[in-house]
Design a protein that fits this description.
eight-stranded mixed beta sheet
Length: 783
Amino acid sequence: MCHVNIGHGIRSNGKDNMTENRRLTNFQVKPVPSPERFAEDDDTLEIDLRAILAKLWHGKWIIVICTLFAGTFGLLTSSQIDPVYRASAKVMFDLDESSIVDVGQLVGTTAGNDALQNQIEVLRSNTLVEKVVVELGLQNNPEFNPRLVEREVTLGERIRQVFKIPPAAREFAQNVGLIDPPLPPNPPPSPEEIEALERRIVAQNVLARLSLQPVPSSQVIEISFLSESPRTASNVANAFADQYIVDQLDSRLEATRAATDWLAGRVEELRIRLQTAEEAVESARATQSLEAGQSIEITQQQLQALNATLSVVRNEARTAQATFERLKSAVETGSDFGSVPEFRNSPLINQYRQEEIEIRTRRAARIELRGEDHPSVTPIELELTLLLDNMSKEAQRIVEAAQEEWLSLQAERQQIEQDVRELETKALEQSRDLVTVRQLEREAEASRILYENFLARLNETSEQERLTSADARVLTPAQPPLFAQTEAQNRTVLLSLFAGILAGVGLIFLLEKLNNTFRTSQQLEQMTGKTLLGSIPSVGSRIRRTTVVRRFKEKPKSGLSEAIRNLRTSILFSNVDKPPRVVMFTSSVPREGKSTTATLVAMTSRQMGKSAIIVDCDLRLPALADLLTGDDGKPGLLSAINGTAALDDCIFRDDDTGLHVLMTKPAEPRSNVNAADLLSSRRFDEMIDLLKSHYDLVILDTPPTLVVADAKILSSHADAVVYAVRWDHTPRGAVLEGLKELRTIKAPVAGVVLTMVNEAKASRYSNSGYGYYRARYKNYYVS
């Protein structure tokens, strides 16, 4: 083993170690869920509106450019649209107040809240449209009749004309089923069918350009028409208004005539009905006079008297029944006869009560004189029992008398009720004929009134035909418009702008989905399942590592220095019970900033009074030799492992920072060196153990994990592994694969560090987190 003497290069402070340990015991690191846990909770995540808005704001120029392109396309497209003109006429729909008779009541029409909508449907009717087409001769206008437009030959027809299939080839293709055989020609339509179809097509084209809108809070309908000619637009709009008025007149006149015919027939029916009703009244009166006997008034008086008597008897029967039930209940329950008025008014019961009082008095005196068990008391008790039995029998006779009285009244009531029913039957028979007569008289009177009303209405309707007028009038006739309508052009431009905005938003989210790097700490933690130990800001683009180290030394209060100190604290707090002594820095691929970060962490430890050494374990492409200046030609890591030089002689000491570095020198021969064998050798293990015993912190700067196997070998020496990920550069798959390689060997990965972060851009990608607030409050740092 090589000779080692490194004690003079180490400064240890026991008080600082105690303070550091005390800080470590008061800090707790929250565990980060695994990637599987994040995958399970992905469905329960809420939509972060602030993150979406921040993402859109970050891509605002993409939205602006897409909107400009789409708007330009919309302007070019709208410029190719043929100009159209809109002409409008206004028609007011109103009831004719000069009407003598409301014809609508006769023919069943209604005028309510839907009357205006009904008139709009009338304006859209095929009958009215065809009248306008015939009046203006629109079937001869190519704008509405596509048959008059010269048909352009399509590209497919031109190709078929140039490349015609020979008849023999066509017949062969039909025989083998490649081409369907031609269908038999349909019989040509008749001229009447062609004309009808043409009128239908023209009417549909005219109706498609017609617009009917009710004016709010009025009975006015606005008739608008679109045409390529301003005069045609105004003529068609006015023609619809005029034809609507004419249609109103025709419909009212037709309705009036129909009402007159209907009223005439109805009046004749009512006249016959009235004559029949009057004859029936006279016949009923004659029959009643023949069958007249006792007058209905006398029968009603008798019935009234019997009803009064029946009411009195019913009341008396109810009273007798109540008396009987009360007396019966008093006897059955053994109540005191003196408390019942009927028993109290009985002379015999009163006599029995007096005798009862005397016997009870004698019994009480005998008992008091000779005792209750004396034989002389028994005759007195027998006498009392006999007296009470006689009193009960007398009370029972009173109850039976009350019952007889109640039954008598009940029979009288039934007889009177029977007499009442007989009188009622007789009165009903007497009044039936009178009711029939009165009913016939009412029917005759109703028929007379209805006949007279319809006769008057017939006369009014006959006069109405001479005063028929329309329910509508033209308020404002249509005039040829002076300017073309631009709604279609504006709509095209607006739709294009809207489509451009949607395309820009979609492109932003598409680019976000296509991005395969890490831009936020939340992404890194969620996808890797590892704790984010720190976020190292970038000090500028295309700056050498030596410049970064120099700025770190010159500006100890800068944002970079604070970030490195936070990283060192996070590394030490990754294991509160046993702070790591050997920390390994690695990454997925080269140029991730891990060597620079490891160097700055070591320098921070020295600034805080802790002894630290950084070991450059990249035997293939050493980086620390170029990073640090002041190399005086000392041997490096290979010499220390091979034993050709003492370990103390191989350690480089920076005079400015006091940093100790065990670097791999480019001058050392490495042609026959197997890096994996050296790093897994017993000499290297002993060297790391020796460094751990003399330094508070040993930092191993290793090659990338996915490039060579050195990092996996060296992880066995580390108490904590820090995985460096370059912001917006390292592919996500590379990071996950590298962590997977370390996971297979159970490397103690303490967390990840995000390096070379452009804080200005990172703050736009995230609306929360450490990096976001660092970028927003940069005035706390001295750059």
